[in-house]
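For homework, think about our next protein:
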Amino acid sequence: MALALSLASLITSGFVSAAQKRAIEISIRFIFFHYSAKSHLLLKERDYFSFKIMAEHAVTTKLVLPDRKREFSWAIDNVSKFSRRLYSSSFSVGRECEHRFQMVARLRQAHPNAHVTNVSIGFMRTDSLHGHATVSCEVQLFNSEGDRYCHKECRWYISKSESVFACSEMFSDYPEKLILPGVKKNISFKDDHEMICLKGKRLVGSYGDFSKIFILPKDKLIVIGHIKISGCCPTLVELSDAKERKRLQPHVDQLLLDFKQAYENEIMTDVELVVGERIIKAHKFVLFSRSPVFRSMFEYNTSEKEDSVIYMDDINSDVMEVLVWYLYTATVRDLPYQDVCDLYEAAGKYIVPTLQKACSEILMSSIEIPTVCRIMVLAYLHNDDVLKDQAIHFVFRNFAKVKVTEEWEVTVRGHPEIASDVLERVCLLSSAIIPVTQED
């Protein structure tokens, strides 16, 4: 899609003929629908024209991925009477969000003679969009008298037609069969403070192997909370300085073109980057302006400043050339996966955050079984929380396959603290998410 956006920018630049413009539009259409078949978004025919409009207004607008939140309330009657699965009506999280959800209540009888039922509350995606949605929720369970039983917060990725559960508790409307605790006069630090008022009202009992069973007056459970979805359904927002940006854009394009030609033709270069056997000629001013690391080399009386030669033994020559190209043109050349990883590290070392972010987005789309371990380690070492979350959730969903790879063994041996943290997070996700099995 980045390539399609670049092609679309050519259409609006005024540097192409009518025939070239038509050829580019055909290429955009091909890229667009190829992407729609394989991407995490299900793009529709009408979206192609929206995309063209977005490209034409790329200078004056920006694409944002807002968090969308919705409150919910659901009353469930006859909770403890029999096993079944209930679904709420389908709902969306916002008018501009195409993801849709249902709440799910899975009721399983544990001790029918005591009306003890295991109740699990979760969500199911009902839309037809591909890929994962990043969802967080807050769920609280009350009885009909307003007493709160529990409060849970969860965050997970949820796929199309997949269900996850946020909480699971035991309930009964038959206190005569339960063992009820006496009202305690003193409170110790070992007490579960969320339960104190419920114990005082004798709304918590035990039966058989279950030490905590909530008593439901009128056998009615109230589910209240909110659901939030992040990073989906992009929205175009006009920039506050849109008119000024549009006025300046032709001049910016020409400036980038001039810088590109000066670099490619080695016009009045005044510094050499020696990378292995390759020499990259550049301009001190560009390096000085675009990277704080290069700036420090030229600010003081260093050998690099005096000799105008910088020896670089810690970076691949191809990667260094792509980094310098970005400093001049603000564009990222296509690279194999391994080189993208090296470029990501180089962007961090030379403090070029916009390049590192661009590489991070490329790496997100490259997460697979063979690649996830290195990407995850890079994200940890560079404090890239977004990339880290993507990698960890992939490991969580594919841990059986990831743990037997050579890359995972290398991670465990080379970065044990990272591997330990990943395992801890995977365990936390496992405890927060109870996958739905087939209907009972």
